[in-house]
Amino acid sequence: MSTSAIASASDSSTATIPALSDFSVRLIAWQREHGRHDLPWQNTRDPYRIWLSEIMLQQTQVSTVIPYYARFLARFPDVAALACAPADDVMTLWAGLGYYTRARNLHRCAQAVVEQHGGQFPESVEALAELPGIGRSTAAAIASFAFGARATILDGNVKRVLARVFGVEGFPGEKKVENGMWLLAESLLPVNATDDDVSAYTQGLMDLGATLCVRGKPDCARCPFAVDCVAKVTGRQRELPAARPKKTVPTRRIWMLLLRDRDTVMLEKRPPSGIWGGLWSLPEAADEAALAQLARDFGASADVSPLAPLTHVFTHFRLDIEPRLAELDGTSNASNARDADTVWMSLNELDAYGVPAPVRKLLEGLQGSLI
């Protein structure tokens, strides 16, 4: 590994940073003996399955992804099946996994692979990175696992490993620090490696960050780099990598209308972009009075009942939800409030609709103790 790569990755003195010329060799050996080998998307060179898992695993834990991955494969066994599926079907299966832009890009990417590449994923990192929803690190992971490409990844787990082992200062999300980490990561790639070696190296980086070099309490005693790790040697495991600079998280407040007609509830489809884009949700209003008027417009009776409030935390803001229950007044016809973006859903059909997690919680409450 070059000294210039280390220097670029850290503003600290390089005198205390280990050279670790055998980094890749040690990591590959560790992965083969101690890494994960039986995840559902491993032991395959199928780029479709690898791509699907990589998109789902973005900012999401393995244990959460596994059941979604299985359901997606059962419903969409190959990229052609996903490409021709209705968007509603894709969003319904994705509901609850969060970060819904991933689902929309997943669908667009499948269509691009079919329409632009004859149903075959391109093999180069550069071509993969041009597809919707695939960034530089994800493209490298797909190319490495599917095609044995010698390409580096740099997701959150890898940044944490590099920051600790090599003592990289600064918040990894800052562009200057991240650029230095890319140089460092590229300098560590195995040389003259077989396809299997490259895959083991890439998987090893992921495994080390996910199983040992974790955020809270790293298991340094089992780490193959413990004797060389700057964070371990200097007792700075909790300091490295540097935390995101603190800033106030804004709070938004909305009112949601649960409009019920006997055993059905009205849902509206959200716009394709933005928060919960493309999902089915409840009608919203900016305040209590606007929500009461909205209920009347839909033909609800005068009584609007408050339900227990909910709070949902997004990456960049906190959403306080004030749910209100209203019933059609008996003279209104539910079909009057129906169009292409509106549906009256029976509560026992909830699984057939893609709804955001907090909305699902509210709807499930209608069958429980909320009322």
From TrEMBL:
It catalyses: Hydrolyzes free adenine bases from 7,8-dihydro-8-oxoguanine:adenine mismatched double-stranded DNA, leaving an apurinic site. InterPro entries: A/G_AdeGlyc_MutY, DNA_glycosylase, Endonuclease-III-like_CS2, HhH-GPD_domain, HhH_base_excis_C, HhH_motif, MIG/MutY, MutY_C. Keywords: 4Fe-4S, DNA damage, DNA repair, Glycosidase, Hydrolase, Iron, Iron-sulfur, Metal-binding. One of its GO terms (molecular function) is adenine/guanine mispair binding. It holds the Pfam family HHH. It comes from the Bacteria. SUPFAM superfamilies: DNA-glycosylase, Nudix. Its cofactor is [4Fe-4S] cluster. Residues 56-211 form the HhH-GPD domain. Its EC number is 3.2.2.31. GO terms for biological process: base-excision repair; mismatch repair. Binds 1 [4Fe-4S] cluster. PROSITE patterns: ENDONUCLEASE_III_2 (PS01155). The keyword DNA repair applies. The keyword DNA damage applies. PANTHER family: ADENINE DNA GLYCOSYLASE. Adenine glycosylase active on G-A mispairs. MutY also corrects error-prone DNA synthesis past GO lesions which are due to the oxidatively damaged form of guanine: 7,8-dihydro-8-oxoguanine (8-oxo-dGTP). Belongs to the Nth/MutY family. NCBIfam families: mutY. This is Adenine DNA glycosylase.
